[in-house]
Amino acid sequence: MTILIIAEHAQGELKPETNKVVTASLALGSEIHVLVAGYDCKQAAESAAAILGVTRVLIADKPAYQYQLAENVAALVAELAGGYEYVLAAATTSGKNFMPRVAALLDVEQISDIIAVEAADTFKRPVYAGNAIATVQSTDHKKVITVRTTAFDAAEVGESAPVEYLETDIDMGVSTFVAETLTVSERPELTAASIIISGGRGMQNGDNFAMLESVADKLGGAVGASRAAVDAGFVSNDMQVGQTGKIVAPDLYIAVGISGAIQHLAGMKDSKVIVAINKDEDAPIFQVADYGLVADLFDVIPVLESQL
Ligand SMILES: Cc1cc2nc3c(=O)[nH]c(=O)nc-3n(C[C@H](O)[C@H](O)[C@H](O)COP(=O)(O)OP(=O)(O)OC[C@H]3O[C@@H](n4cnc5c(N)ncnc54)[C@H](O)[C@@H]3O)c2cc1C
């Protein structure tokens, strides 16, 4: 089976999501090619070539792909897809943007957000905000799949697959890059962090998140939030964890002043160890927590920080 993976990369660096999609693909076949579409993205291509299991890297290094506009990337992928039985990408903001377009251009259904490969045509994926797992079978001749990366370990590196430059240069001319505003932070990215401390409505305001930031900095972790905290304007929406936010599965997730609504759990319940701090002993978050502390967060977070 021949497989094409679309690499996730930014600022010249390959993102670990790509390694996880490779792991998902290993169950489908052994001829695994990775496409790196971008501009000045040679370093990302070299990193992709080093992933164990990758047999070839295709690099489309053209101005048309500089900002990875979904319309241009989708057209490129659809053109290349003829030679492959599977096209896979991570179910990230960018994967969710261009992959449905690829599926539409190829006139097949997208198989979204898979968490396991059961057989060559059968996959498991969460539905109802993760409260049920559906087993889906596809009869499409070509399978366009997005992968929930928290469900797969990252493939190791150590090989050196050949890198082939593509001349295909497709600018659909229907979208242009205007600007991007990047969050500058010394902390790890939420989806890549092995420790996350998140705050909810119980934090009362944005200033109080400084307490969580101090703990995060001591632990080398990232800071997340519930949607209630985001909607109340305490913090920016790129920090939201949950069904409509980021899906995370760190080694340690500390939920502070978060009730544990199913939409929040959908984004973090696969974390390896969950700690909940809430003053309401009946809060649903305690049902998924490995360690629960019934306490006022304003009493215990400063103590936790000083102990650390
Ligand atoms: C379609 C849809 C999608 C959604 N997507 C998301 C999503 O992606 N992510 C998400 O988080 N939510 C999402 N929600 C919202 C979700 O339903 C909840 O409303 C939200 O998660 C609640 O956030 P919260 O726990 O911070 O607030 P609350 O439910 O108000 O809970 C606050 C908690 O803080 C505790 N608390 C208060 N003061 C203190 C204190 N001093 N010390 C200790 N504990 C204290 C309270 O006991 C309470 O349990 C979605 C909802 C819908 C309908």
State the end-to-end distance.
51 Å
Radius of gyration, rounded? Answer: 21 Å
Distinct ligand kinds: flavin-adenine dinucleotide
Low-confidence stretches: none
The main β sheet shows up as: 7 strands, parallel
Could you state the order of secondary-structure elements as H and E? EEEHEHEHEHEEEEEEEHEHEHEHEH
Give the % helix. Answer: 25-40%
In DSSP terms (H or I, runs of 4 or more residues), the helix count works out at 9
Q: Largest sheet, order of strands side by side?
A: 7-11-6-1-4-5-12
Q: How many individual β-strands?
A: 17
Which overall shape is indicated by the principal axes computed on the Cα atoms? globular
The fraction of residues in strands falls at 25-35%
Mean pLDDT: 96
Structural class: alpha/beta
How would you portray this structure in words?
There is one protein chain. This protein has helices spanning 16-26, 42-49, 70-80, 95-106, 209-219, 227-231, 262-268, 285-288, 297-307, and strands spanning 2-6, 9-10, 13-14, 31-38, 54-61, 86-90, 110-114, 116-119, 122-127, 132-137, 143-147, 163-165, 195-199, 222-225, 252-256, 273-278, 291-294. The chain has 308 residues and is an alpha/beta fold. The strands form four sheets. Strands 7-11-6-1-4-5-12 form a seven-stranded parallel sheet, sandwiched between helices. Strand 2 and strand 3 (13-14) form a beta hairpin. Helix 3 packs across helix 4 (95-106). The mean pLDDT is 96. The structure holds flavin-adenine dinucleotide. Residues 200-202, 226-229, 240-245, 257-259, 261, 263-264, 267, 277-280, 283, 296-298 line the site of flavin-adenine dinucleotide.
